[in-house]
Amino acid sequence: MGKITFVEHSGTAHIVEIAEGQSLMQTAIDNGVPGIDADCGGACACGTCHVILHSDWVQAAGSINADEQGMLGLTPEKTDASRLACQITVSEALDGLIVHLPEFQM
Asked: Structural domain tally of the chain?
């Protein structure tokens, strides 16, 4: 089974197993990754599951829709590699994915 690495702003890494078909947000919550609040429960209605993808993984995670882009526009640490974890579906194709958690969510 594949792995995904969540890296806290402090540098602490959390390596979790891929749960095929789940959102990246749910995967983080199910594995106790700190910094993913998911206040809206995955409805793309807040920015509390903001993650920053490692540059090697931006395209593999899929494209951003208008709703996600709007929510990301409200986050102070938005980068070109920013995504909402609730909008990324986990699959074995993401084996090795590295995501960083922004400081303001900690």
From this structure: 1
